[in-house]
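Q: Convert this sequence to structure tokens.
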Amino acid sequence: MEVHEFQAKEILASHGVPLGRRAVATTAMEIGRALDALGRNLAGYVVKAQVHSGGRSRGHFTDGSPGGGVRRVATADEAEIVAQAMLGQRLVTAQSGPHGKPITAILFEEVVATDREFYLAIFLDRREQLPVLLASDRGGVAVEGAAQKHGILREKLWPTVGPCPFQLRRTAFSLGLESKETEFCGLVAGMWRIFWEKNATLVEINPLALAEQGNFYALDAKISFDDSGLTRHADIRALRDPSQEDGAEIQAGDLGLSYVTLGGTVACLTNGAGLAMATMDLLHAAGVRPVNFLDLGDGAELATVAQAFRLLLAEDGANCLLINVFGGSMRGDLVAAALLLALAGKQPPFPLLVRLEGPAAADGRSMLRDHISDVKILPDLLAVEEAVRQIC
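A:
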């Protein structure tokens, strides 16, 4: 689960991370009040669209209006005009997909004159199976390219210990922050407390600015949380913004299903995570992309499977439905009955490929043959791959 930048900054501030002056508006009526609270006589303002997507400054709006999602202006009146134009728009970035994300809030910040900018993050490295501290003396929007060109500092962290003093000192010295070692170490310690105590998978500050007067400021921030830990953190769970998430994933999550939208052309229904991943690999080997990852698991009820089929039938871009169910406690006749329930007497809008094995599989295959005209019953994965190549 992700949170908005303004929410991430509130969490950082509560753990001692230094931030500049800021104010938030979530409605048009709040924009003026937010600027009044921030102050209308500042040297400059940054107006930031709040969406769950990176690259906001280089994004564009779906209505074609000019300007990106992060704008620097000179006066409060200009900030108000820009914010009014942004709020309620959809912002398209390199990470948002072609339909963009709705702008549900605006963050106003005071312009900070910076001397240097850094990249700083703690994230869960799944390859290392450890938290890792990342740091670079080149922060900002082009941090990926700078990291490839100049390298990035990495410190593996022991989960129950966190950053050791020698690791913090080594990182500070490598960044040229010998004179700011104490402040830097305290800042990273605050990031670690968030990461560990709140079950985060990423705590990122980019850029971390060293201002001309010698103070640190987190100019931008991103925090992601492990969904599996949200039951322990009601305060974090309350920050969720469903408007920023995929609708099918939200509905599937409410049903207790594992669902990820992937944007391809073959809609997939499988049971078991291993078979679901093997199906994804099979589709890629056939030269096509899946619409989704969907793991029914074992023992899903008829109504749940029917709703899963409704999600798949409604997915944009799908031109084929692949059912790959094998063994376990998932009955073949239940899968067939669920699809017929979802179709409500209609034919599927695209061809149906079925590999159905296990309990009551023969009954399920018969039901599908009797009620659906464009269905191919396939005996094994090789046949599935060949059929996918022909259709898609």
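The chain has a mean pLDDT of 91.
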